[in-house]
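User: Here's a protein and a ligand (NDP). What would the complex look like?
Assistant: Let me lay out the input and then the predicted complex.
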Amino acid sequence: MAYIDEIIGRIAEEYPEQKEYQRVVGDFLTSVQPVVEKDEERYRADAILERMVFPDREHAFRVTWIDDAGKTRVNHGYRVQYNNALGPYKGGIRFEEDVNADKVKALGFLMVWKNALAGLPAGGAKGGADFTWKGKSDREVMRFSQAYAKEVFRYLGADEDILTSDIGAGIREMGYLTGQIRKLTNLCDGRIAGKGSAFGGTHLRDEATGYGIPYFAEAALETVGESAEGKTVTLSGAGKVAVHAAQKAEELGMKVLTASDSNGWVYDPAGIDPDLLRQVKFAEKARMTEYAKRRPGSEYHTGSEGIWKVKCDIALPCAAAHEIGLSQAKILAENGTFAVCPGANEPATPEAAEYLKANGVRLFPYQACNAGGIVVTSLECSQDSMHLHWSEKEVERQLRHHMHEICRLVEDTVRECGLKNDYIAGADIAAFRRVYDAMRAQGIV
Ligand code: NDP
């Protein structure tokens, strides 16, 4: 039996209930199969795949806190330290009701490759708890965050494991975690990233993911001798990622033709006005109908499928998973779209992804295009360890450099491995090679 099949089978047998973990490992190993197959016996002899797919350590703990009514509440907390061959474990914590051991493990596995692809001196980790801030008072969120910190702090360290923000664990929660961990350790170091700027947080924390996407597109265009100036863009979403992506795309000279929320989308032939979008969505928390009302010449449409019918050079799906189905993929290909650079995770259905790949549209991996956030948290750790605070301009310069480097690495791997238009395999293989080379050089540990 092929080594990869053996490992996939072993995981299914040993962790039958962990479907998400099985899925992400299966997808990744299938993607890197051509590399492993070439030297299968050596990989097998060193148990490379076992040492990659089974995390170094999985911590599960009880999180006990007291709610406003004085009732004692208990949640389940996790921290999975996956692989630290490239540097300290690093990854977000997610506070959401459906967090469980399976989900955290799957997300931790993906962080190993995302950090490796971004060229960061960081390993992969993930954590969280089955807790949501929704319906809780600020004091309850604080007491819960402190209780989580009391458990997780023993595993963290600036050179050991770095905790970053994720869904449900934003600036407020990171502040409470930082305060409690500082109290427990008496240390002010870079073991938490995504902090407030008054106590070691970096510039561009909120903007980084969105800004990084047009920078990636700019780099992709440069590989074919084109520039971003004058290119047309279709964009979905009007959240944190989409609004910042729209702003940066416009600054790079692109024309963003669309934006959406979950009710409908706007076509703005003059180019989406990022200031108006920000005002409507962030300041007023209004709907896209409001944008259309205030922008002469723009059109409002309900639903979201129509976005991808608008002819463009670059598509930036920044709303939700699986927003590009097969029919949208066909239109993107017919329209001669140069590339899809996703902000959203898994934006295309598997059939749509296959279609784009087979029909000449560059579907870049979301792990590469939306890596701006992890790049900037890494820059925050560097600033913390040097006790420096870089200017916004400096952080942005480094962000742009990293996004261009990621794009170049993916392009080079695709070319070198003869992967034709398979940029997802290119990214997986590039990340795999980085981790594999580091593990091999460090011996069997
Ligand atoms: P937000 O929740 O801030 O924004 C999502 C936006 O997309 C909202 O405007 C929402 O509308 C809209 N939307 C949701 N579903 C649809 C749909 N089916 N069709 C059209 N529009 C829709 O999320 P973020 O901007 O933070 O994240 C966007 C995506 O990027 C997510 O997939 C996320 O996982 C991914 N991502 C985010 C990162 C980050 O740093 N924030 C990092 C990496 C990935 P409405 O206003 O009506 O809710």
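Summary: The chain has two domains: 3-194, 208-369.
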